[in-house]
Amino acid sequence: MVTLSACGSSGSGSGNGSGDSKTVTLVSHDSWAASKSVIAAFEKESGYTVKVLKDGDAGQAVNKAILTKDNPQGDVFFGVDNTLLSRALDNGLFQPYEAKGLDQVGAPYRLDGDKHRVTPIDYGDICVNYDKKYFADHKLTPPASFDDLVKPEYKNLLVTENAATSSPGLGFLLGTAAKYGDGGWPDYWKKLKANGVKVVDGWEQAYNEEFSGSAGGKKAKGDRPLVVSYASSPPAEVVYADPRPKTAPTGVATGTCFRQIEFAGLLSNAHNTKGGKAFLDFLISRRFQEDMPLNMFVYPVVGGAKVPAEFTEYGPAAKDPETMAPTKIAANRDQWVKSWTSLVLK
Questions:
Q1: Is-cis flag, bond preceding 243, omega within 30?
Q2: 273-283 vs 36-46: helix axis angle to the nearest 10?
Q3: Are the CB atoms for 52 and 81 separated by under 8 Å?
Q4: Residue 60 near residue 53, CB atoms below 8 Å
Q5: CB count, 10 Å around CB of 191?
Q6: Count of CB atoms within 10 A of residue 198's CB?
Q7: Who has greater pLDDT, 117 or 326?
Q8: How confident is the model at residue 302 (pLDDT cuts 50, 70, 90)?
Q9: Contact between residue 332 and residue 296 where contact means Cβ atoms under 8 Å apart
Q10: pLDDT score of 43
């Protein structure tokens, strides 16, 4: 989601435009989704038309936004999470803006403090998901923890995303670093590689093509019953199924979760800063926050926002996810990814 950098003015116009355009352009990762009626209400009330540009997995989208920051594709960027936050901020991707209603957002999600270069939008947990039918058919207990994933009985069953290009892939790497420490995670990944982990570029490929438990994976004849995805993926499998099953076809290995927080922000050289600010206000409005869970399958950050029953029943947030301070991520991320690439991909 989007990060706001200290490079711009928080006034009505900065960068390449006067701020008077009637179109607000959102640049996002591929998983952006919102109800048409909710976007239409914003357009009617604000007078702005929303244009959305999807730019791949979050990691790819952030990297492209940095490369094009002097002449950005849009006004607001949605797709920076806590694993990539420092990269966006250090590259001056965003200008500061304190969104209206920010006081209703919980303090644990406001990782940029009083600088307001990013606005927290949602949170979720990156976790290994499993195909219930596969494990039932093979009379095998699904893995429950990071330790389980390197056991012989789970050989050649897991697919994950590239930590260099994918935010869930990076989140999973950081989860292992949080679990096993700076010196222990490389040994863990050596074991995981020896146990046949498969790495693909992004979440869409991993979940909807390689994973045998998802609707998309079934159609694609995916053969991996374990995938790095989200704790909220099982509710998605229920909501999108027709007819709806009584129970989710997938489950979550709750001992493999890493907490992800996503942000949005006003691009430093946005053409329409006034419209971008209005859109950021909208993203933390109760209307959008309550619409968001069943569209993007993430949790709202605004206090008191209602969470749908499907989340409570099929995909509750992890009770004790791994976490890591943004400063630690910033200090180690690039070197860890470089080491991970050498260990796992070469």
A1: yes
A2: 130
A3: no
A4: no
A5: 14
A6: 15
A7: 117
A8: very high
A9: no
A10: 98
